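User: Please predict the structure of the protein below. I'd like the answer in structure-token form so I can feed it into my own downstream comparison script.

Assistant: Understood. Taking the following sequence of 416 residues as input:
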Amino acid sequence: MIRHLYSAAYALALPLVFPGQYQKRQKDSRGLWLRQKLGRMEPRTDDAPLLWVHAVSVGEAVAAVTFIDAFRERHPEYRVLVSTITDTGRKVAMERLEGRAEVIYLPFDLPVFICRAIKALRPDLFIVMETEIWPNLFYCMKKAGVPVALLNGRISRKSFLSYMRLGRVLGPVLSYVDVFSMQDDTYVNRIIRMGAEPARVRGSGSFKFDLRLEKAVIKWTHGLKRPIVVAGSTHRGEEALIVEMFKVLLTKREASLILVPRHPERAPEVEGVIRAHGLSHVRRSSIEPGQAPSVDVVLVDTVGELTSLYGEADVAVMGGSFISHGGQNPIEPAYWGKPVICGPHMENFPFIGQFYDAGAALKSDGDCLLEALEGLLDSEERRIDMGRRASELIESNRGAVKRALDLVDGLMVKPA
């Protein structure tokens, strides 16, 4: 019943959201987007087993790369297909999985489109990253005899409360999933309370700790004044706070700010904030190869460099944590041994408590951000110590990908 009600609501809403979603795509990509959203995929002509991984956006795509590389090492006979919803997620997946996976847009979640895609692609195994619940996608996979696994699962408190208002009606939808590999015991308990069968749920840890990153040399940062503060994945309302704070900081010392909005299309809006505070700046897209600008602020309006930019930072400030968004992932700056400052809203990353307890990150609010930042910039010894603690914490939490792989192996039918 719940799936049929969901399908009816989805079908009614689709004509309302479709025009805007179509128009936001680049003109040269609209045709591909439309075909794939309607499930019109190029039919497969080979018989190699196929793993289909769904990663809705950037964070899920990054986690998927870690899993896919480990999966391909264990199962080189498999081809890999990755579906995304957002253009930024698609771009990240294509860049990080170049030559190792095909990337498509996930079809609209209605049976006619999903089943059409499954028939053309013939997947042998389907994996969804984190906790994207797609009733018809799960149903159609199950109907086609394709095992379904939800890996690196997490459910924010906000999402959990919304789901629980529905009671346990999600039980039939969750029954289409063969195994749930959740990040921690909190998420294990939440998915079970939502209706998942306990025997199918495991706590396996977070893929984020299993990152293996390669640091690219970003030459344009070499012209910036040290120390460098990288504010990553910021949201509306945070840029004004950070830029205002940074302007005060510049009255006391030299420094540079690299500001990376979560959504690059907001660059004009964020640029207006920087101009209003009278700071010299340049957009990343305007920096020519070989150029090393000397400005107060670099506004990153491109995708793909944030991971390496954290490696260039002296201090990282986590976006999404100074508003009621739930925070952004602190693992990448910690991976490079960088001290991290988080706002009061890190609900999407419960493991941040481990960082605070270990002295590997600082918790601040908007009023105290300048004081917290100055305290770190004034002591190189403290920055190094926090970075070391962060690196050690990441190392001690590795192993989630292997545990998830072992669960997936139990679902797989070995090809003849």
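That's the full token string. The chain has two domains: 2-205+399-409, 219-396.
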